[in-house]
Structure formats: C-alpha cells, structure tokens
Request: fold
Amino acid sequence: MKVSLFIPCYIDQLYPQTGVATLSLLEKFGCEVVFHQSQTCCGQPMANSGFQHLTKKLDGLNQNLFGDSDYVVCPSGSCTLHLKEHVLGTQTKVYELCEFLTDVLKVKSLTSNFPFKVGLHQSCHGLRGLQLAKSSELVAEPFSKLEPLLKMVGGLELSYPEKVDECCGFGGTFCVSEEAVSAKMGQDKAAEFEADKVDYITSADMSCLMHIDGILKRKKSNIKVIHIAEILNGLAS
Reply:
C-alpha cells in the first residue's frame, strides 16, 4: 500500500519526532511511504483568517503533490480536515493517522509499551470534523478511534478529563485574536489533567498539545505532552 505522508509545517519545524514516529509506525504496518520534499503548509492558518483567496498557489501545489495519491495520511486532525474539505476534496483519500490505522489498516495489536498514566485530549477538528470519537452533544453509542489504539499499548493507564470533549482554547488563529479567552480555556483544560494526576497528555493534534504544554510549563508542572504517534510507535521515553 502506497501512502503519501503529509507532515504539517509546525510539526516539521517544532516537533519533528512526531513526523518520524508517524513514518516509522506506517512502515511497521507494511506501508510504502512517500514524503514529498516540496510540501509546505496545508493552508489552514490563512483560510481561518479569511484569506483563502490568497492560498491558490499553495492549494495548487498540494493538489499536484497529493491529488493522485492512493492515500494521504497526516498526524493532525485539523490539517487533515482542511486538506479534505478545502484542498483535495473527496476524490483523494485523506486520513488522519489514527483514522487510517483503525479504518484502513484495521490494526488489532501493537508491540509498544508506555507504563504511564496518560490523559487523552480530543481535539475539536478530530472530534466534530473527522468523527474520531462521539461528541457529548450527540445521542449515539459511544465510539473512539483513539482509545482502542491506546488500550493496545502495554502498561498505559488511560484517563479522560472531566469535560471530555471541551476545547483546549488553541483554535489556530483564535489564540491570537482572542488571546485572553484562549489562555483561560487552556488553563481550565490543563487544571483538569493536573487534578487527575496524569504523567502525560496525548492527542491526535500536536497544536492542541503545544498550547496546553505552554500553560503547563508556565505553571512549572511535571506533566509532559506527547503526540499519540510517539506512544503507538514505541519511541517515547
């Protein structure tokens, strides 16, 4: 199975270990992974700020790079959703990493081990845009595409915050335009994880984790953040 790997620009620049873990994980399950060196941003920050009309060249680049791919896999729910809904469309099979592992590869077991208490943050784009789990406002049977994968990891104790699907406050450009509101939402989210005494916080969106991590570090908290790809791949320490 040939897979085109889309690594978000902020992961490439700030959290390369997440990209490496994603690549390694896909290869472990027999995927032939293609990484296009000329890829840059998905275009979401500009579009969210009302400037998608200025991203035509970027959209064209992404369409040329990924338009003919059998699958495009991305370790970010928000970037995946933007590519799917605004750039590549439904003809290209675009998947968030956990969605791909669950729905396409149908992973049933993992060899990784992570003996820590881990709090799971469900990002808004992944939850309500990609339906990676059931949101609390829906009257439906509970489901999750992240939880079963984490439960395959040896030694991991999974925990949820009290407000299981409340936004962390990052919201991309929202944290710039509404700084005070964003910070307070993040502080509330971090406090829930602290009250539950988790060792790590994980998510399918490193952008949310970046926001929460900044708040934790300012509080000199011992809680660490880690992308789910690193836990599943077994590279975490």
Remarks:
- Strands lie at 2-5, 32-34, 71-74, 94-96, 117-120, 157-159, 200-203, 224-227.
- The mean pLDDT is 91.
- The chain has two domains: 2-103, 117-233.
- Residues 179-195 form the longest helix (17 residues).
